Records
---
Amino acid sequence: MVWIDIPDHSDFSIHNIPFGIFSGPDGRKRIGTRIGDHILDLEKTASLGLFDHLSIDPDIFKSTVLNPFISLGKPITNSVRTKIQETINDESSILKDYPRLFISPGEVTMHLPVEIKDYTDFYSSENHAYNVGAMFRDPDNALLPNWKYLPVGYHGRASSIIPSGINLHRPKGQIKPGDGAPVYGPSRRLDFELEMAFIIGKKSELGTSISTSEAEDHIFGMVLFNDWSARDIQKWEYVPLGPFLGKSFASSVSPWIVTMEALAFAKVEGPKQDPEVLPYLQYSGNHHYDISLQVGLTPRGSRETIISHSNYKYMYWNTVQQLAHHTVNGCNVNIGDMMASGTISGTEKGSYGSMLELSWGGKKTVHLKDGQERKFLEDYDTITMYGHAEREGKRVGFGAVRTQILPATE
Ligand code: CA
């Protein structure tokens, strides 16, 4: 019997128990979890002896990032999660005597959950890759020849990954108008990319590879990921080495890392991969996840319009294939590394994961509930991404990642 009040349809049901970093009014960061509309202070919970049976140093919950906690390994971190679930189900729990362990989300600031040493961005949604290829090249030959043989990716910028709630100034850079010479100025084609990212929970050694069957053991959990993009800067700079300043100015992440164990119930079969992939990319079991995703656009002083309904299950390449490919050359990974999926688009127009696709390269108009129209994003627009898995009354979600666009700095 759960003794704490958890609203129906909460992303943070007893089945979730994510991990994050929060600070209260004193500004001191520490580790917490979220249950319904409460944040549970795990530093104080540990000091009551709740995790003593696991022989964890209680000071680990004073960490300002989750990396030291994650480095304890899945047997320990999963046991912490399970113990919290048991405690919330236990009417005689000691925690009931300490109501101040539970803090309202309105009283805290959420921070980046991990120190991200490296960030990789994949390009693993077939519909997105098709749409971009059709728009910029040829609808009859939209996917490049390598796309179905390997999960295409690039190394992104970790320093500019920001938590939900931190606002973003419109980026500036070189833009080439039509046939004219390039000019310098604020991006006029600022865009979001609806993605999810997984976080490495177990390092690998340089020179070794992680197989698809080992990969799940190396993945701690997932977040929602908004990979901001300046399409006009990107268009001019990307040849021949790929994305650079049109991407590196910021990406936003949701604050709670939902563990792979919490998401296991949402596993579904992936698409049949044709042509058959090379042996090192073959996998057994299900590694796609049915996670429903939404993007909301809120103009300044107005109401939100949900402009995209997508789903993480639309991926062509899954997490274990991405990690196997990433390390097949002997590249090592570290705890806290973040690997984003690539924009997640479905087949229908309303399921596209970027303004680039929703406005079809600026040729179509996206209509908002308040009568406004968009092709790309305007100053003071707020983009919010939501995601959750739900099956037979069981719901596990991510909350939201929310960012407002501010005008370019002078
Ligand atoms: Ca991306």
---
Amino acid sequence: MTANWTIDGVKEALAAKKISARELAADFYKRIEARNPELNAFLTLSKERARRQTDKIDALVAGGKPLPPLAGVPVAIKDVISTRGIKTTCGSKILQNYIPPYDATAVERLEAAGAVILGKTNCDEFAMGSSNENSAYGPVKNPLAQDRVPGGSSGGSAAVVAAGLAVASLGTDTGGSIRQPGSFCGVPAMMGSYGRVSRYGLIAFASSLDRIGPLATNVEDVAAILQVIAGRDPHDSTSTTAPVPDYRTELEKPVKRLRLGIPKEYFGEGMDAGVRKKIETGIELFKKLGCQLIDIRMPHTDYAIATYYIIATAEASSNLARYDGVRYGLRVDDDSLLAMYRKTRGAGFGAEVKRRIVLGTYVLSAGYYDAYYLKGQKVRSLIAQDFRDAFAKVDAILTPTSPVPPFKLGERTDDPLQMYLADIYTVTGSLAGVPGISVPCGRIDGKLPAGLQIFGAPFGEARVLQLAHAFERAGGAAV
Ligand code: GLN
């Protein structure tokens, strides 16, 4: 059996009756059973739901009916995305037995397009983290180097794709959580523009930043998944009415003469020498493809980490107020209501989530609001303006995804600030609302993967995918 299935590969095999959707899913579950005990990438398997879906697909095949775009494609869903009837824990103890009564729109659309949901993937608690080590259910191991982290917070979603335990997955990105694990696990991973994909059913971390997006084994499959999940959803008023282009057709457009901005601020101190070498070689590859490289400045980049950690924690402190032991998940009983709240939240949340609730409450509190939260919002506008200025001159922006290669498990857990600094290149695009992809860009010393990040103008996903596809096809993963 082919180890590396692609969406087209699955479709062809089904249509030619080489394998049934049921057999394919069973094969993936076999692989999961073999590898998941060591990787810890799946938290919950949804075999029954998968069975219902594969029966539907196999009936279509048997009836000679046309197959939907993702027919029979085994996918995995990050555990912060709601799945009806299937446990959705957010990597937290506070939701350890929570079973959503409805599906996220992205999940509903995947299934309507024929995808088979294998299960839910591990992640940092409430998507807060960059290494997956903040999960209440234990860390995920990087399938490419098992002493290393897979990145985070969508570490499980990246690991399952890299290990061949799913053809594609959904992750979420608030400050880098799709792109950075994609980079760490050597798979393409995309965050569309804010508003491109409905957030309905995504359990909120920071609502003005949160986005759902795909990880897959190649850019074409990333495009195919985005195609299905993108577009207006009446359940999410921040989802855009802008039409969704045909991404897969756009992929084939020539990249020659496109202007690519290289922002000086993303190549400063603090970048690992091995990462730098790979990214520079990757950028050279674009030159060979006929693109024009242009040095640009994005002067507010230095403020992005501070701004992100003010705005994201402020929103998190408000969003996470709902976990009070009354309506959802865990409750630790006590005679007084206040003590019940305290005990429930004390026992249910992990250290990083508590740290962020405290930080967020602080930056929103009377007397500090103007100095931190309001200031943060103003700087956010300046960062967005940097992107607007850049896109007046260039068609896309190239940067590293992460300043460092995948680090060792446990190496940064005692130093939250070091962990926050790892987000330096990804949080800018999050604050600005622009789309971004991470594509594999060689292996450092032949081993650990580096990721090249491509930012596009708002709703310019097609351009981002087109460049990523050209890069991949030109051998970007092996530079
Ligand atoms: N690592 C960042 C954080 O900890 C981003 C997380 C995310 O994108 N969900 O907040």
---
Amino acid sequence: MDPERSSRRRFLIRVAGALAAIEGMILAVPLVGTAIGPSFRKLRLTAFAKVGPVATLPVGQPTEVTFNDVTADAYLSNDAMRHAWAVAKPGGTVTVFSPICPHLGCRYDWDAADHRFACPCHGSQFALDGTVLAGPAPRPLDPLPSEIRDGTLFVRWELFKSGIPTREEV
Ligand code: FES
């Protein structure tokens, strides 16, 4: 074979091999991300969300509050409207409870007549401070991380496992 043609042929084979390798690497990126992504779940960043002025919360009774939960998970950003129960206490402190019943995950409500939180699903009841008063709930209501900055309440959304006596993030 003509040496020049043979050399050109070898060159083209190498170029084709290099292009195939690059293509393989490009296709592998999403696959690797899918495979190892769950390992990085703990890197999910949830910012504290602004709820509103603490002064508008009545002391000694719960107020249902809503806030925009923005999360950054690797290169994805997600917005979701959340709600929670804020309980303002004398002295200016506030406890914010997740709205999810720690028994099996239903949404509970405030029963003003009985002055307690009540879950419609299996009858769990909770005091204003979150302690269990009745029903199958295995633990008190779950407080959400909250801060007061210059008189404004900020909350960070978190999800907890239901049905267990200890508080563990999902
Ligand atoms: Fe609330 Fe069962 S989910 S009592």
